[in-house]
Amino acid sequence: MKTHKVKMLVLSVAALFAIGACGGQKKDPKNPKNVAGGGGGAGAGDPLNPPPKKPKRKLSADAKKSFASVAAKYEQAKTAGTVKNNCSSLASSFTDVYNEHPKLVEAKFNAGVIWEACGKDTKAESIYKELLQKHPNHGPALNNLGQIYYRRGNASAAETHWRKAAAAKNSEGYANLALLQRLRALKGDMGALREAVNNIHRALAVDSFNIEAYNMLATLLYDHARSKSQLTMARLICVQASKKEPKFAPIYNLLGLIHLKMGNVTPALAQFRKAAGLKPDFVEAQMNIGSITLSFRDYKSSEEAFRKVLSLPVSKDIKYAATVGLGVALRGQRNYEGAMKQYQAAEKLNPSNGDIAYNKGILVQDYMFNAGKPEEGIAQLQRAKDLLNKYLSSGQDKSAVKDARRRIKNIDQLVKAIRQQQQMQRQMKAMQAKQAAQDAADKKAAKKKAPAKKK
User: Which residue range is the domain that position 171 belongs to?
Assistant: First the structure.
């Protein structure tokens, strides 16, 4: 079984709310005909640091048959889309194969991957630890434990296990070490960048078909590209990788980010949609779709993308961004009350972020202001002004700060104009009432002066 990979975040520089990703996705059990090697991958090897030779295992026909039977059950469940409905059954079946045939370490490992793919990290962790007690240098188990710790936010424990996996010549361990080094490189550590590239080369030397390693290599180029030719090189790596594994969604998301950086918005959207089509729960691709369609004013598509993100287990930051994005999409569809509810939900998620006040201020000023009811309208404008002033106390975006100040000035002018109009209306009503009273008095006086009619 191939390993279950870690997701890696890439900030999109061009999309409004996008957070792109070019990381791993869940992979399927290893072909039961290729059980030798423990799931670490087979490649040409690193000529400077060759992997240790392992003695060939002698597997009985019965062992191979048992493994193939369970693997076939998995394939059937995968085709039917029912893997997550049969986690316990599939994991137990792989465990039974291992208990009966202890040489089939892959079977024990597969049980852990099944639980991990089903979102049961604690059960997967227990299985990997049991496996490592008997096989302490099992690279795939070490790698996957690192992934579990990384998802829990324990980067130190993750790195420790990935280094052990790499020491065991596990391609995935090398690739995941490159992930951590890439994050350091983004903060300016050029030594980490060089080591990340080296680890990618090591990963590909062990497994020349490691799609995540190709993805990471293109990501590093994307991160540090200073010219169109460098972006073109990153794009070509993605294209070649997609030919090796056409259904690997993160490659298409990265292609989208590269197109964005090159200023090709429409092709970028096509790539993000391809990524989401292959993997509907691909959060980063959905976020990018939502952001670009917002800029196109395709508010319905944007709403669908952000609602999909909010239906998934995501980080607080992504949930905040998707909630704000959904509010903008609803505002674009004239669902102003719905938009305000989303902004209020976003505010609860991150009360210290003043940016949401800017969005709420615009919504109240431009879309909820009732010009037909002056007093109500003035109250709404004052509310918008208070929100915009709140933004000014913490706003960082220069253009937004400038716009907020302009809006406040316009609000003051409009409130003054409404007050003047109200005063004029009151004066006019008073004049009309005075004139009506005068007309009535004149009419009464004229009636008294009129001669009496003869009978």
Answer: 9-296
